[in-house]
């Protein structure tokens, strides 16, 4: 059982050394939201990119070995079309669908600004800072958009906000109900 004890012991040491979590960014404010599909989105996109790269390198080899070049033009076109589709269209589509997926969202109370962390095309974390007044809610429910920050579409899961009030403030729901309450008073 010695083999199993060593890694867990190292894990304990590492954990006790790093007191703050890797997601603590005081400059962004407090963490109000964490997307639970971040690893999945990253994994799927990474897999898609790696298969695309593999396809690009393998295509000339497959052509040489299979003798597709000799056969009919139609078979060749279909083959290229299929490989091309998976090589280029899939990563692009995945990027378009997942680029607005918010991995983490921070909020600064004193300035009423949010910092959204998303993935960019090369799978690096991208920071978008926006003000609550920049938030626009789409008129119709869009599949991969919860709200727009200025012009960028953002996707969050409302149920993952530890504090529902944070979600209400982000979407501006707290303001609209406040005004309705004021009107009732008058």
Automatic annotation (TrEMBL):
UniProt entry tagged with the keyword Transmembrane helix: yes
Entry GO CC: mitochondrial membrane
Transmembrane segments: 42-62, 74-97
Alphabetized UniProt keyword annotations: Membrane, Transmembrane, Transmembrane helix
Keyword Transmembrane: yes
BP terms from Gene Ontology: mitochondrial proton-transporting ATP synthase complex assembly
Pfam families, per database record: TMEM70
Gene, per the UniProt record: Tmem70
Record protein name field: TMM70 protein
InterPro entries, A to Z: TMEM70, TMEM70/TMEM186/TMEM223
Native species: Pomatostomus ruficeps (Chestnut-crowned babbler)
UniProt family annotation: Belongs to the TMEM70 family.
């Amino acid at each position: 059982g010695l083999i199993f004890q060593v890694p867990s012991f190292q894990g304990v040491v590492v954990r006790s050394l790093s007191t703050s979590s890797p997601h603590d960014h005081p400059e962004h404010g407090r963490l109000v939201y964490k997307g639970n599909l971040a690893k999945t989105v990253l994994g799927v996109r990474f897999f898609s990119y790696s298969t695309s790269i593999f396809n690009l390198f393998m295509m000339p080899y497959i052509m040489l070995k299979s003798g597709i070049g000799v056969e009919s033009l139609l078979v060749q076109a279909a083959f290229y079309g299929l490989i091309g589709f998976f090589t280029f269209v899939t990563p692009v589509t995945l990027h378009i669908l997942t680029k607005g997926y918010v991995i983490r969202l921070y909020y600064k109370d004193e300035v009423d600004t949010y910092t959204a962390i998303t993935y960019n095309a090369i799978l690096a974390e991208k920071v978008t800072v926006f003000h609550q007044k920049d938030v626009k809610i789409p008129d119709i429910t869009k599949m991969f958009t919860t709200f727009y920050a200025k012009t960028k579409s953002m996707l969050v899961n409302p149920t993952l906000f530890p504090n529902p009030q944070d979600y209400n403030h982000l979407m501006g729901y707290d303001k609209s109900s406040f005004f309705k309450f004021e009107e009732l008073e008058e």
